[in-house]
Design goal:
2 domains; 5 helices
Length: 403
């Protein structure tokens, strides 16, 4: 029996030795059907921080708070040029004009020429860290000099020099945003006109701390980027049904003039339609020791203006953009519609006042960025329905936070 078992073990060992492995391994390649994903740096693509440029032509509107003007809605129209002389330094020249035909068919406004030098103090560090290219999107400290002619309707020249701390950003391919706060010395050259006394004791100078905001177009030596659509960067298809808005304040604090402009608003969509209701209230305060009348010269004037506004906005391109996949049901885009407003201006320590109950047309463009910042360029023309029959025009530059 042992011999038989040993024989079977011997046969099994031989068969295993000469047996062939019949298992086969096959290698195949299949095409990946997943869409290639890419990371989009929204901040970099919105503000073009990594696009190099040395020349920039600027066209747009600005709001300077250091010139006393109750037409707080009036903006300066500007054109300028800035040139990079080094990574961190630039030189620039601006020309601005503002004014209206609010009370008089003659021009009633300001013309100014401004030159400046800017130090982009953190530009070299950001370039070294790979966060920036050599361009104009950065934080800066500037030295400036300006000559300004004020027509009311005669000329009131003003010379201004000072320092500014500011932030400038390119916006997509051709946009530009700028905010600044500055400390300035102003010198006034008044004409010798009987019955006109602006400053008590003949003082013709002022030191001011004031804010400035700019929005407009920029053209330079960069190539337009079309690799990523604007909707991918700005999230055009996001749904926004309502938003509270706090306006960027205009502030001027001087030895002879104090002015502050603040505002808050609320906007809400009407269902899923391209219509919305927008409410805004703006308050403007001026304390001034300047006047057209001699008997005001020895006392400061305190004047307040309150301007509540209601608008029915129609975002007329919204439906077509949603169908094309280039927009969403939100509060961004070009709009127009009717406007109703009330303006109450009153001298606190005097008898002067002005009332305007107006109805008319509003138009503009609004865009929400990163979910909590908005830009609103708004114009309006309204007819005063009270005794003083007249048109009131306004153009506001709204920056602020969406809450």
């Amino acid at each position: 029996m042992k011999i038989v078992l040993a024989y079977f073990v011997f046969l099994l060992s031989i068969s295993s030795t000469f047996a062939q492995d019949t298992t086969r391994v096959r290698y195949t390649e299949e095409t990946d059907t997943l869409i290639k994903q890419r990371f989009i740096d929204r901040y970099e693509n919105v503000f073009m921080t990594k696009v190099a440029t040395r020349h920039m032509l600027k066209v747009g509107v600005s709001r300077n708070a250091f010139i006393p003007n109750f037409e707080s809605s009036e903006l300066s129209h500007e054109i300028g040029y800035e040139y990079k002389v080094a990574q961190a330094f630039s030189l620039g020249l601006n020309a601005t004009v503002d004014g209206s035909f609010y009370f008089n068919p003659a021009f009633n406004g300001t013309v100014a020429l401004n030159t400046y030098g800017r130090w982009y103090y953190d530009m070299k560090r950001r370039i070294k860290e790979g966060k920036n290219a050599n361009n104009f999107s950065g934080n800066f400290i500037a030295v400036l000099a300006e000559k300004r002619w004020r027509y009311v309707p005669y000329s009131l020249p003003v010379f201004r020099t000072g320092l500014e701390f500011g932030v400038q950003r390119r916006f997509l391919n051709f946009g530009r945003l700028e905010f600044a706060v500055g400390l300035s010395y102003l010198h006034y050259s008044f004409p010798n006109i009987e019955g006109v006394s602006y400053f008590q004791n003949g003082d013709k100078s002022d030191i001011t701390l004031s804010t400035r905001s700019n929005l407009g177009l920029a053209f330079g030596d960069w190539k337009s980027s079309h690799n990523i659509s604007n909707c991918e960067i700005l999230n055009c298809d996001e749904i926004v049904r309502e938003q509270w808005k706090v306006l960027w304040p205009d502030i001027n604090i001087g030895t002879r003039l104090v002015q502050g402009v603040v505002g808050v608003g609320y906007e809400r969509k009407i269902g899923s339609s391209p219509f919305s209701l927008n409410g805004l209230i703006v308050a403007d305060y001026i304390k001034s020791k300047q006047s057209y009348m001699n008997y005001y010269a020895q006392n400061a004037r305190h004047t307040v203006e309150l301007n509540p506004t209601v608008q029915l906005r129609y975002y007329y391109l919204q439906k077509s953009k949603i169908r094309q996949g280039r927009g969403g049901n939100n509060l961004s885009g070009i709009y127009l519609g009717p406007q109703f407003e009330y303006v109450r201006q009153k001298e606190i320590n005097g008898s002067g006042f002005y009332n305007h109950l107006g109805t008319g047309l509003t138009y503009g463009y609004q865009k929400t960025l990163f979910g909590d910042v908005f830009i609103d360029v708004n114009g309006a023309v309204t007819w005063n329905m009270l005794d003083r029959k007249e048109f009131r025009t306004a153009l506001r530059l709204g920056f602020g936070l969406s809450l």
